[in-house]
Amino acid sequence: MIYFIGAGPGAVDLITVKGKELLEKADLIIYAGSLVNPGLLQYAKPECVIMDSAKMTLEEVIAAMVPAAQAGKLVVRLHTGDPSVYGAHREQIDMLRSYNLDFEIVPGVSSVCAAAAALDAEYTLPNVSQSVIITRMEGRTPVPSKQKIADYAAHKATMVIFLSSGMLEKLQGELIKGGYTADTPAAIVYKASWPDEKVVRCTVGTLAESAAKYNITKTALITVGNFLGSEYDRSELYNPTFAHGYRAADPSKLELKPEVK
Ligand code: SAH
Question: Separation of 19 CA from ligand 1 center, angstroms?
Fold first, then answer.
C-alpha cells in the first residue's frame, strides 16, 4: 500500500493524526526534503528506509516505491502542505496505476491555511471577498494563457500566490496592471508555522521592497486583497436578526454582551 500524505505546512504537530500514525508504521518514507520538516521523520521506525525526493526524479521515486509496495511494505510519500496544491502527486499516481498497486491520499494542512492563521485573517470576509484565487507567477513552469496574474487581479478577490517570492517586482506590476491599486493591502508570509516564520504586512506597491528588507526570497506565500483591511460586513449566519434551519431570528440577542473585566 502506498500513502500520499500531506505533511502540513512545517510545524511538526500540524500533520494529521492519520498521517502521523502511518509514518509510525511505514517501511519506506520518501519525503520532499526541500520543504517537509525533517522533525517528522522522528516518528519513523528505526528500520524504516528514508529517502529525500529533492534529489530524485519522478522515475526514481516510482522505481523506489514499486518494489517496496510489491513486497507488501507500507510506503509513505510525504508531501509538504496538502498534496493537491502544487504537489505533483497526480503524475506519480498515474504511473503507479499500471502496476496495480493500491494507494490512498491523506490530506494535510496547506500553507494556504497556515498563512491565514499567521495573519489572524479570514480570506472570505462578507462583502469583501467570497472567493480565493490560488495561483502562481509564470516562471520556468509556464501558466496557461487565460490564467495570468493580471486576469485574476481584475476580480479583486483574495489572492494567495505560491512559488513567486523571487519575482515580486514583476508580480506587483502584474497585479497593478490587472486592476489592484498600489495601496491595496498585501502580506508576505515566510515559512508559516515554522519557528522562523516571518509575517510582513505591506501593500501591492511595496511587495518587492518589503521582501528585500526582510531577506525573503523563497518559501513564502504572497496574499493580496482587502481581506487584510479593516472593513467588512458581519456574517448573516451568526446574526441574531437572521433566521436559518438551526436557529430562529431574535434581534433582542444583539444586546447580549459579556462584561469587560
Ligand atoms: N503543497 C504545498 C505547496 C507546495 S509548492 C502546500 O499545500 O502548501 C511550494 C511553495 O509553497 C513554496 O514555494 C511556497 O510558496 C509555499 N509554501 C510551502 N510551505 C510554506 C510555508 N510554510 N509558508 C509559506 N509558504 C509556503
Answer: 18
